[in-house]
What we know:
The protein is α+β, with helices and mostly antiparallel strands. Helices cover 16% and strands 35% of the residues. The chain is built from 2 helices and 22 strands. The protein has helices spanning 2-25, 123-145, and strands at 34-39, 45-49, 55-58, 61-63, 65-66, 69-73, 81-87, 95-100, 108-111, 169-172, 177-180, 183-187, 191-194, 200-202, 207-215, 219-225, 230-237, 239-240, 247-248, 253-256, 267-274, 277-279. β1 (34-39) and β2 (45-49) form a beta hairpin. It is globular and about 60 Å long.
Amino acid sequence: MRLFCLLGTVMLACVMASVLAVDVAHAAVPAGVRVVRQDIRPGGFWLAEVPSGSAVTVANRPVPVVDNRVLVGFDRFAGPRVWVKICPPTPTPCGVQTLVLEPRTYATQNVKNIAKAHVNPDPVQQARMARDNAATAAARRAAMAATIRPAAEAGVGFAMPFVQPAPGAVTGVYGSRRAYNGQERSWHKGIDFANPTGTPVVAPADAVVRLARDTFMSGNLIMLDHGAGLTTVYAHLSRMDVQPGQLVKAGERLGAVGTTGRSSGPHLHWGMYWHEVAIDPAGWLPPRRPANGVARNP
Ligand SMILES: [Zn+2]
């Protein structure tokens, strides 16, 4: 009998623990939280207005609140649930927004006709790549350090509707595993738009230019800082027409499409990062409407 009681107590404790976990996950969302835009799947994001003076955390990590707006990005492997804890100023209690991510699968894409050096770089090229990566990381750190800025300041565009930075057919999508000349490498962190060399590339939203650099793998590479930890990159450009520190407005020219770096033909590689997490730019664009009428992002 005592053994049954002990088992019963353990089971009750387990049930209580799971009920408590559910309670935490479904704590009421504070009044005043309003979704601005979202793409609730791995690689997506959640952009919302929160009550003035709120503190926001995800997995106990503070997330900057800029002009009462908060941006949360999800990595390629995120989910199935993400909990955003929102604490308005006292006496309003904290609430939790539960985001249930749609499952997502990724294909493998083989890219052919890549120069051998860009698949198996030699030690000199690897050293150059290390310098490129350090410069890119420093630019991204500078963007992250500057997250607390009023949106009224020029160059903070994360809350704006985004425009597509270049026209063209989508030839590469976010998240796909990539093989170059048949050798598998890491996954694809962005979207590719194919277009002839010289096609203008424009800023999708207001930003500060953080980097404009000739790199080994990404070719001519520009990084924009849109505020709230959101940065975008433009790779393989044939030319760069902006300088680090420059403010750019949505639609302003950054450079032109090219095929510099590890590239098999003229295209724009457009990447997006929430802090250091590579997210999918597709969810930031208006849905595409193909002939069958079904709205779909690339
Ligand atoms: Zn690409």
